[in-house]
Structures are given as structure tokens and as C-alpha cells.
Amino acid sequence: MAAQVAATSQEDRLHELLDMEKMTLSSKGRAAVGTSERWMRYLGFPGGILVFLLLYHMPASAGLSGAAQAGAACFALALVWWVTEPFPTYVTSLVLMFLLLVTRTAGAKAIMDVLGMEVIWLNLLAFILSAMLVKTRLAKRMSLWLVLRFGHTANWALLAFLILQMALAPLIPATAARCVMTLPLMLVVAAIYGSTEERPNAFGKNLMLLNLAGISVLSSMTMTGSSANLIAVGLIQSMGGHRVYYMDWVRVGAPIAILAMVAMWILGQRALFRIPVEERLPHIAGGLGVVRQKYEAMGPLTLGEKKALGIFGVVLFLWMTDIFHLQWFGVEVTAPFAALIGAVIVLFPRWGVLQWAEADIPWHLLIFSAGAYAGGLALDDTGAAEWAVNALFGGFDLKELPFGVAYTIIMAVMMYSHLLTTSKTVRTMIMLPIIITMSRTLGWDPVSLALPAALCIDWVVGLPISGKPNVVLFSTNQYSVMENFKYGMVTCTIGLGLLVVSAATWFHWIGLTPSFWAVAQ
Amino acid sequence: MRTLSLIACFVLAPVAVAAGGDIRTYRVHVVAPAEGAAAVTVTATFDSVGERGVAVPVGFPGVTDLTIVDAPAGTVAVPGPVNGQTTVRVTFPAPSAEPTSVTFRFTVPTVFVDTKPAPGERATLPDGSRLLRHTFVNTEALAIGEYRAEFVFPAGSRAHAVRESAPRLRKGEVGPRVRLADLQDGPGARLQVTRLRQGDSASMTVELIPQSRTWAFFAAGALLSVLYLIYFKDLVGKTAA
């Protein structure tokens, strides 16, 4: 009787986990977990103010304008608060916007206009499309099918998740949404293979960390994979004077991301967290049967799912063919407008699949992005970013170095710098203008360094605080901070190696980079 | 057509020799005091010089006290508006096919813009802020290869922001157009443009503020920090643990 109750309870839990519609992106601040985190939060507030005052009152440097110095001080305060979280991140963004105004770093219009920028619109529209996938249960069906198709052994179950993340990455730009959407499946499959919160095993570590890396790294396959990618594209265009099209990004980003993840799929289970033979088969009664039962209960494709498929097909088609739009339509339908037309169909009365109230739009994320973007732009506009470049690289004569050596140094800094920040947007806004300015100074085409650097933006896999999916997955207690760090560093190093090899070979062949050993004249 | 070209070559060649070559480099150095007249030094290097002398556009109104600092002996410089534009007419003692430089100095009443609001108008700048503005138009037929204007800020001032700069950076040009830098005689701003043909212009506006910062942020920050540490002490209290 007790066993039957336990089995029923376990099945109820699995059913509960599979109910994805209950998963929403909460705006509630994250609770401080340990003593050190609570102290960090407590001291973070005065710490941020102290950093601001130190930078603001720092003796004037000849090349640094007053506005640039004030902007750097405001941004440093926000950075300390984003990391220590005395406030939720979006409140810090609002404070940053106010500080930019009162320190006269930027004008009111420039700050407010950020909320109307392309990247913010795309974020907003992507969440509407994402809500459509969840509401019509197409995402759930896709996930269940992939697990059933490939998940009979540990090896193939891991691959199923890799493929699942690969399929979702171009469709859903928000990494947090992708993580939340697939987390229930991860927990179910981990439990099926004997890995629980109380007794995690090598399979559980591999599953969670492969998904963590997959969610982040595979976002670099497409320029719409994350909003930070789009910011990078915007910066490359506005500062570097080079337009990056959807397929330009895909042809350099996708092979590197996919190769790195396949390498991690193999390395993870064979070297980093070796899965013993007894853990390679499903552990609990029912196994994949529960997943199959859930999948079969969904029945055939509903009309809503078919509509969702069609709408996503249209949007994806427009995203992938932007290079031909001018020829076909006489006008280019940019990524946000492709998503916009998708949202129009999604929300269309009677024919659509969603009502406005059902779209789970996380405004707090948009406000956070807007604040971070306003701060980053202020750093650029006031010349603070350029001043930082000169301060950072003033002692090096990178001009004497061959392109490949400078490229490797810059990629390494870009790849591992994610350990210092919690926001891809912030990192993009700091690093990309610096890299574009530096490549100009060194005499290289900005895109030759900026586009490969932009591919590193999404590789935020080193620490549990490096990104939102990291925080969510760490909460499953399937792996430790050090295990996360080990897995993350191996992933980043493989990525760096692939980027360097690519620069020496086919990046050069397709004309993206100059010869690896070329020296600027 | 060919005949016409040949005639043009024969007729225009002596004119070109008489007028001299383009201005290879044009350097302006301005020491801007907080109050009163500013000292301007201009150094222009010509590809070659002709018999008839050249009109050098200066871009400053109210040129006075013009003196030649460095030039071939016998060179004469006369200020004056030519066709309504401020220029300095330089006449060299003899034509030369070699690059020739001339440095002259003059004073101008001010380089700052009067931003005091008229009665009833709203102020556009906070107290203590001033706008340093310079506009240079190449009004003459001679093209300028490289134009550079340096402004040394008054003692006790610093740049808050470069409010305007022109022309926009051309494709492949390394920016920014106006760079804040440590000049020989103090911190200042440098405006640099290449290839200024007749009618082209270069300009900049820099907002200057006092070097000392307001302590209002310090006071507000300290107060907020103390209040936070008192009212959020429960974050690290025993109850929270």
C-alpha cells in the first residue's frame, strides 16, 4: 500500500513537473542563500556607492571628459549592485538611468529612447512568440518527442537534450525561457536515470551541465539567439560600419557552437564526470514510459499547434532570408519586424492562438536590458570606453603582433570575462566597443575581431551566477560550484581553441579574417 | 577637345605657378584664458609658393595684433576680411617650388560662446559651465591636406563633454573627430580633419566645467549608505540566518 502511494506520488510529481504552462519568469528578487551572499547583499549597497564616489571624485585625466568619468562611475555602481543584488537587477537599471541624467552623462531623451530600440522590441516580441509555444503546448510536444526518440540509454538521452536545445535555440531567444521550458524534462529524465536532488550522480551532473552549456553556447548559433547578440550586431554596424546578416552569423557561429557541444557531450560523460555502466540505463520503474504516456496523452497535433508551427515557420523564414528581402519585397524586413508580424498573427482575433493577457511578458527583464543598454551606450558616447581601451592596452604594442596573436588574446579575454559579470548585455556593451575601437587602432577591419568576439558573448557557463539559466539549474542541487566551474572552463577552452583554429583556416578563407600571421601596416 | 586641353594647360600653368600649391598642413594652437583675449598661433605649410601671395582663412573673427613668428625673410602678413571672411593675406618674398612654412600669431576677443540666458529665457547650461566653440571654413581655393586645431583649456577647467563635432567621420577614418588630450601647455581638445577643399568646414563645441566636483553626491551617498546599513541590518541578523 505504502509502495503504491509512493509510486502514485512520484507519478504525480512527474506530471506536475511536465506541466510547463505553470512555469513563468518571475520578477521576484532572488532570495539570498548563504551567509556570505547575505553579507554581500548587505554591503553591496554602500559598496556600490563607495565605488561611484571614488570614480566620480578621481583626479581628472587629460583624455577623460567629465561626462565620461561620471558615466564610468554610474556604470560601476550599477555593476556592483547587479552582482551583489541589494535590489532586483531591474531596479538597479532604473537607478542607473536616473544617475546618468543627474550626473549629466546623457540627456533625458537619449536615456529614454533606449526602451524604443530594436533590441528591446525584439525581446518583447520574442516573449510573445515564446508564450505561444508554451500555450499551444508545441514546445512540450517537441521536447517529449525528442526524449522518446533518443532517450533509451544515458548516452542517447544526453544527445536528445543536446538536439532539443539546438532546436529551441533559434526559435526562443530568451535563454531563461528555454531553461524554464526544458527544466521539468531534465528533472524527470535525471530521476529516471537515478539522479535526484538528494543523491545526484554522474548522469545528473552531465545532464544539467550539458543543458546549461547547451542553452548558453547554442545561443551563439544565430544572431537572434540572445538579445546580447543583437546588441553586438548593432554595435558592429553602428561603430564598425559593417552590416552582419542573419546567415553571416550562422555560417561562423553555428559550426563552432555545435562542434563544441558535441565535444562536451563526449568529454563530459567519458572524462569529466564519467558515467558508470550501472547508471547508463533507466533506473526507476516506468522509466521513459511516463514520458511516453504524457506524450501519447497529448494526442494528434491540435489546430493551435499547427497554427503555432506555421507562424514560427513564417518568422523563421523571414529571419533566415533577410539578405534577399530587398530583392523580393523592395524593403528589408528586419528581425524585430519579422517577429512583429508573427506577433500580429499570434494575437489576431479568432484566427490567432493567444490573447494579450496570456502573453507572459517579463517587463522586468526588458527594463533591466534598457538600463544596461543606456549605461553601455553612455560609456561609448562619452568616450569612456575608448579611454578604458587606451588605459588597458596603452602598455602593449599590439600593432607589432601578428593578427592571430592579437586575435587569440582578444578572444581569450572575451571568452573568460564572463566570470566577472552576470550580464551578457553588460559584457557586450563594455567589450564590443573596446574591441571595435582597438581593431581600428591596430589597423584591422573591425568585423574581423568583433564578429568572432561576439560569438563568445553567450558562452556564460563558468559559474552559477554567470547567467539566469545557471542560477535556475544550480538550484536543482545536481552539481557543485566547482563542478560547474570545471565543466564551464573546459567548454570555454574548447570554444576558444575552435575560434583560433577557425581564424587560421576557414574564417580566413571566407574573407572574415586576414591571414593568421599578417602584421598590420 | 584635345586642342582645348592643350591651350588650357599653357594658359593655366603660369597662373598655378603665380598662385602656388595647396596647403599641405594647417596647425592652429589656441591658449584660451578664462577671461579676455585668446592667443592664436597658426602654422601653415604650403606645397609651393607663388609670386602673388595667398589668402589663408583663419576661422576667427576680430583678428588683432598679427605678427609673423616664423617665415622666410621678407614675408608679409596682413589681416583683413576678403569677401567678408576673415583671412590673413601672406605674401612671400620669392616664389618657391619647395614646401614653405609660415607661422603667425594673433589675438581674438574670445573663443567662448555667450550662453547667458536673456531675461525670461531658460538656462541651457548649469552655473560654471561654458561652451568653447570653433568653426573653420576653408573659404579659399587652396585645398588643405590636414587641418588640426588645438585648444588649451583655461586653468581650473576641464571638458565635460564634446557637444558637437564636424564633419562626421568618413568611412575608414579613425575617430573621434575631437579628441581630449594632454597638450604641450595643459589639458585641451584637438580637432583634426583631413582634406578640406574650398567650402568644406570643420567645427567643434566643447563644454567646459570647473575641475572641482560637487560634493552633493558624496553627501547623498553617505547618507543613503548609513540609512541602508541601519534599516537593512536584518539582512545579516540572526533571524535571517
Describe this structure as you would to a colleague.
The complex is a heterodimer of chains A (521) and B (241). Chain A is mainly alpha-helical and 521 residues long. Among the domains of chain A are: 32-105, no CATH class; 123-358, no CATH class. Helix content of chain A is 67%, strand content 0%. Chain A has helices spanning 2-18, 35-56, 66-84, 89-102, 108-112, 118-135, 138-150, 154-168, 175-192, 202-217, 227-238, 246-272, 288-297, 303-320, 325-329, 335-346, 363-381, 384-393, 403-416, 424-442, 446-455, 468-474, 481-504, 506-509. With 241 residues, chain B is mostly beta strands. Chain B has one domain (2-217): Immunoglobulin-like (Sandwich). Chain B is built from two helices and 14 strands, in the order H-E-E-E-E-E-E-E-E-E-E-E-E-E-E-H. Chain B starts with a helix and ends in a 10-residue tail after the last helix. Residues 4-19 of chain B have low confidence and may be disordered. At the A-B interface, helix 2 and helix 3 of A face strand 11, strand 12 and helix 2 of B.
